Amino acid sequence: AAGVIQSPRHLIKEKRETATLKCYPIPRHDTVYWYQQGPGQDPQFLISFYEKMQSDKGSIPDRFSAQQFSDYHSELNMSSLELGDSALYFCASSLERANEQFFGPGTRLTVL
Amino acid sequence: AQSVSQHNHHVILSEAASLELGCNYSYGGTVNLFWYVQYPGQHLQLLLKYFSGDPLVKGIKGFEAEFIKSKFSFNLRKPSVQWSDTAEYFCAVTTSGTYKYIFGTGTRLKVLA
């Protein structure tokens, strides 16, 4: 069965650079969620989209932005990267918002 | 603010031992409850979920969980663990009106062969 695809899987950036993370949901899933998991921490919700509209917002820094495109894939744009942004970024998708979320393998971002 | 607590951060068991991982949440309204497992180097996978109905939920790989509303708990159990159950386990909650997951801090389980 098709799963959530995230790219890239690993990303190394310097401080103050920008990064773009991509998420391709399971086919027919209309909702995408982004989570950030710092070292040794639980995943923290960043933002979600339902039918290409932002549906919920969590602890996402103003330096980050995201959107969901017409094909339902989503991109998380991160600017002015800081050391503290180093984390595993998970994307999840669901068929309608009320159902369980299916997670991608994550993108490991390292900021040097 | 809503929160989820997992009291056991690290658990070490021998094969065939019984497992119970605690999960408590702080929210007085309607909740949906989930347990996810993350095997080393892999993504989060759903073990089981509770939306409504029978509070005893059976999931994959022999896992089950019981929702006790009066205790705000959703503990995960397995009668006999295997070496392949070595992984990190996360409890997650969604509250009425929102669909974002609030995760617990996770429990690292190590099963000794």
Note down, in words, how this protein is organized.
The complex is a heterodimer of chains A (112) and B (113). Chain A is mainly beta and 112 residues long. Helices cover 0% and strands 51% of the residues of chain A. Chain A is built from no helices and eleven strands. The N and C termini of chain A lie far apart (36 Å). The mean pLDDT of chain A is 94. With 113 residues, chain B is an all-beta fold. Chain B is built from no helices and twelve strands. Chain B has strands spanning 3-5, 10-14, 19-21, 24-26, 31-38, 44-50, 56-58, 64-68, 73-78, 87-95, 102-103, 107-112. Classes of the chains: A mainly beta (112), B mainly beta (113). Chains A and B meet through strand 4, strand 5, strand 9 and strand 10 of A and strand 5, strand 6 and strand 11 of B.
Mean pLDDT of chain A: 94
Helical region count of chain A?
Answer: 0
Rounded to an integer in angstroms, the radius of gyration calculated over CA atoms of chain A is 13 Å
Number of helices of chain B: 0
In the predicted model, the low-confidence regions of chain B spanning at least 5 consecutive residues are: none
Strand % of chain A is: over 45%
**What percent of residues of chain B are in strands?**
over 45%
Radius of gyration computed on alpha carbons of chain B: 13 Å
Anisotropy-based shape of chain B:
globular
Shape of chain A: globular
Total DSSP E strands of chain B: 12
**Helix amount of chain B:** under 10%
State the separation between the terminal residues of chain B, measured CA to CA: 41 Å
- Low-pLDDT regions of chain A: none
Question: What's the short version?
Answer:
The complex is a heterodimer of chains A (112) and B (113). With 112 residues, chain A is mainly β.
